[in-house]
Amino acid sequence: MKRLLAALAVAGLVMVTSPAHAAPQEGRLPVRPAPATQVWATRAMAGQPGQQSQVYLRLDVEELTPRVVTAGTGSITIRGKVVNIGDRFIEDIELRLERGEALTDEAEVREALREPADAEYVQPSFTRIADRLERDESKPFELTVPLRGAGRTSLQVEEPGIYPILANINGTPDFGGRARLAALSTLLPVLSVPGGTAPAPPADPARVTVLWPLADRPRIAGTNPTVLTDDELAASIAMGGRLWGLLKAYQTALNGPLGQGVCLAVDPDLLRTVAAMAEGYQVRGRGEGRGEGEAELWLSQLKLSASGRCVIALPDAGADVVALSRARLTDLGLLALDGAEVVREVLEVQPTEGLTWPEDGVLDQQTLGDLVAGGVTSLVLDQSAVAGTPGTGPVRLDAGRGTGDGADDGSVEGTTDNVGEGEPVKAVRIDGMVSDALRAPATARPVAGVTTPTETRPVSVQNALAALTFRTAFQGAGQHVVLAPPRRWNAPTGEVETLIRTTESLVGSGFATPVGLSALLAGLPEQAAALSYPVESGAREVPPAVTTEVAASWDQVRLLADSMSQQDAASAEPADLVDPLRLHLLRAVSGAWRGDEAGARAALAVGREQVDGLLSQVTVTEPNSPILLGSGDSPIPLSVKNRLDVRVTVRVVVEDTPGIEARDEQVYELPARGDRLVPVQVEVQRSGRFPVHVRLLTVSGVELGERARLEVSSSVYGTITVVITGLAGAALVLLSARRIYRRVRAARAASVRVPDDASGVTPEKSSAS
Question: Taking phi first (over 0 means left), then psi (-120 to 50 degrees means alpha), and beta for anything else, what does residue 348 get?
C-alpha cells in the first residue's frame, strides 16, 4: 500500500462546476476535498473523468480556534480570507462549517487522514461573508459556530471523539448558477463535551517519546575558507526562520512536562556548517556571507539546550545509507556513521552510541547488515519499514539475512555470505499515523530543486493533533507513541509550538506520560520483526547513475591518498586534504536528494570540482623556450611543482612522439610546497624540432594536473642517420680509389706501347690524361 504522504499533506481543494453544468445539490460535493494538513488554503484539483471544472475562488483558513476542544470550549472559530482567482466576478458568497459523525476506531482515523471522511452529518446554516468579489479581489472573514445547540445554529457536538469538519463555500459566478466554489476538510479532536465533565485519564496512559530532528540539505561548496552554495541557511537560523523555530520549540519541550521524553536528532553536517559560518564564510558568486552572528547565536543556544540531554547523531550529511549500500560504497557508509564525533566536538555532548535513524526511517536487509558491520546496534524506523508486526512498540530485527547483490528492485529476499549471525538489532518504531500527518504534500516537495521546501509555505499540524489525541485519549492502553516530525520539517513557528503545547497538555491531563528513548532501548524487545522496504522508497533513492560516478571519484581520492606522505611532524597530514573531499562526495548521496536527481548531480559537481582542484595542485611547469638536447640520450629536464602541504610520489609519463622514444618510467617524490627538477630519460631517434606531451600520474595511475606540452629541439643524429652517413662515406672512398686505380693502370699500359727506337718522335696524348 502506498504511503500516506501525498494524501495527508494536500493543501485543500477548490472545485466548481462549469456554468454549462447544473449546480450540485446543496451539501453534495462533486469531488471530495482533501485533508487540511496545510494551513487551510485551497488549490485547484482535477475533477472526475468526463467532468469539467474551473477554479473561481480560493479559500484560505488561516486560524482555527480551538485546535482541541475541551470542556470549557463553547464554540469553534475560523478566520481567513477568500480570494477571487477566476475570470469573472462572484456574488453572494456564503460559508458554513459542517461536521461528520465521530470516528470510532484506528482504521477510520487512518482512512480520514488519507481521504476526507463524510462531513455532512450536521449542516448549520450558511453565513454571508461577501456580497461581491471582483477578479483578483480578496476579503477577510471570521466565522464562529457554537459546538452545542438546537436546530441549524451549531455543530451539535454531544460527546467526545474525533470529528471530520468541512469548510464549505457557495457562491454565484457571473454567467453561472449557484455552486460550491471551495471546500476543505480537516479533523477536530474533542476531548470533552462543551459544558460536560472531562473524562478521567486512563490507568495506563500512552507512553510518548518525541524525536526532534534538526537537519538541512548540504550547502558546503568549499573549505578553508568555508564557501557555501547559497546563503539560505542564514535566514533559516535567524529569528523567524525554519531552524530557529524548531530550536525554540525544542527548548520549550525541554522545559515542560514533556522534557524527559524528548530526544534531539541532529545532522552532523548541519553542525559543521553552522560552526564554520560562525567563524566567517563566503557565498559562492556573492562574496561574504551575512549569517555569521546568527550562526553563533543559534549554535550557542543549541549547545546550551542539548547539554546533558538525549541526542542522536543522524547519518552525516543526511546520507542515503540504502543507496550507499546498494552501490557497495562501504567506506562512504562508514563515514556517514562517523558523524557522532562532530556532535561531540560541536555540542560537547555524547550522542547515543550505536543508534542511527536512516532517511525516511526505511531500510533494506542488505543495508541493515552493512550498518551492523559498522557498529550499529539500534535503529529508529518508520512503521512502514517493519512488515506484519502489529503495535507501535520496539521490536528486534535479525541482521543475519540479507541480499548480497544490492538489487535495485526493493526486494528483501535472499541471503548474503558477508553478514554473519549476530545479536539482534533493536528498532524503535515511529508512529506512522501521527508523524505522517505532519508531512508536506508530495507535490510541495522540490522535484528538481536545490533547496528544501519554501519556508513561506505554511504547514498545519491539525490532522496530526487529531491522530495524537486519538492515540492517547481514545486508545490509551499504555501503547508507545514515538512522535517524529519529518527530517527537514518545514513549519511556521506557531504550528510547531502548537504541536508541542498540545502534546504537553495531553501529558498534563494524564492521557500520556513521557518516556525517554533510553527506556525504549533498554533490554531486548520481545517482539521479533522483519524489514519491509517500501517500493516507493526504492524509487526515490539517490539513483545508481549518481552513485556510480561517486564511486569512481571515491576511488580517485583513495588512490591519491595512497600517494601522499607527511613532510614532517609539523606539516599537514594527508587526511587533512583528503577528508574534505570524502565529505563532498558523501553530500552527493544525501537523503535530501531522494527523488531529486538534479540536486544530487549538482552536489556531485561540487565534489568533482573540489577533487579536480586538489589534483591540479601538482603540475609540470612548461618552459618558455624549446629544450635543446645535446646528444641522443640526453634527458629532458622537467620542473615539477607541488603546491600541496604533503609529499606526493609521482610518475612522469612521456606520450609516444615520432622521433623520441621514452625509456622506463621513473618514480619521483616531490617535496611539500616545493619544486623539483626531474630528468626524464628519452632516446632521440632523429634531429629536428617537435612537441613532446608529458603527464604526471600517481603510482596507482591517478592523473595529476593538466598534460604539459614541451618543444624539444635536437641537432644530433640518430643511429640510422650515422649508419647511412658511414656507408655513404665508405662508398665515396671506394669509388675514388677505383678511379685512381684505373688511371694508374691506363698510364702504365700506354708507356708499354711506345717503341725503344722512337726517340724524337712525339707520342699522341692518351685519352685518359
Answer: left
